[in-house]
TrEMBL record:
Transmembrane segments: none annotated. Keywords: DNA-binding, Transcription, Transcription regulation. Residues 19-79 form the HTH tetR-type domain. PANTHER family: HTH-TYPE TRANSCRIPTIONAL REGULATOR BETI, HTH-TYPE TRANSCRIPTIONAL REGULATOR RUTR. Coiled coil: none annotated. The lineage of its organism: Bacteria, Bacillati, Actinomycetota, Actinomycetes, Streptosporangiales. Residues 1-12 have a biased composition (Polar residues). Residues 42-61 bind DNA. It comes from Sphaerisporangium corydalis. This is TetR family transcriptional regulator.
Length: 202
């Protein structure tokens, strides 16, 4: 097999370097937040710890809040959802995708996930920014559901489906926080998805 063109190799190298820098910034930010508190940590301190300039920080994260809020789970979830067997109902496929993505995420980064979610729920500016992010999540889910079902992204029912799923996830995370992260988030996510799938009997 011939080697990929040099431009493809360079592109892959650049992407890996950017991902490494992005992760380094987030890792140092979370460490500093844990050591001295979110409000007492400056962007300049994070940049210095990650050995980048403040302008580089802003190329990766538009705001200080985004260094906590942003993660890679939405595209991973969309890919896992679309990869589920075509015969499955969309909610069943979503449950399978959630299990696949978050089992892996918790295996690799449980402590960081717990720290991020606790920060988000305890700091008003982060909660506000997170709610903005939920709109992007609904948009992402709408596109994935439309692709899987062959319906339009403008289909109102597709949007409602995506909104209901996202709202259910928020409820699961809130319950998890209220339990001081002692309950299983994976079990709570599956429980709310099961409730949706049963037609939300009240």
């Amino acid at each position: 097999m011939s080697s990929p063109p040099r431009t493809e190799q360079q592109s892959g190298l650049r992407a890996r370097k950017k991902a490494k820098t992005r992760r380094a910034i987030q890792d140092h930010a979370m460490r500093l937040f844990g050591e001295q508190g979110y409000d007492s940590t400056t962007i300049e301190q994070i940049a210095e710890a990650a050995e980048v300039s403040p302008s580089t920080f802003f190329r990766y994260f538009p705001t200080k809040e985004d260094v906590v809020i942003q993660d890679d789970y939405d595209p991973m979830l969309a890919a896992a959802f679309l990869a589920q067997p075509a015969s499955l109902h969309p909610l069943t496929a979503m449950r399978g995708a959630l299990k696949e993505v978050f089992e892996l995420a918790f295996e690799q980064d449980r402590a960081t996930i717990v720290q991020r979610i606790r920060l988000i729920w305890s700091i008003p500016s982060l909660r506000s920014r997170q709610m903005e992010g939920q709109v992007a999540t609904v948009t992402m889910l709408t596109a994935a559901i439309a692709e899987r079902t062959g319906r339009s992204v403008d289909d109102f029912e597709v949007r409602v489906f995506a909104g209901a799923v996202t709202g259910a996830w928020i409820s699961a995370i809130q319950r998890w926080i209220e339990s001081d992260c002692q309950e299983s988030l994976l079990d709570l996510l599956d429980e709310v998805m099961d409730f949706l799938q049963k037609g939300m009997p009240i």
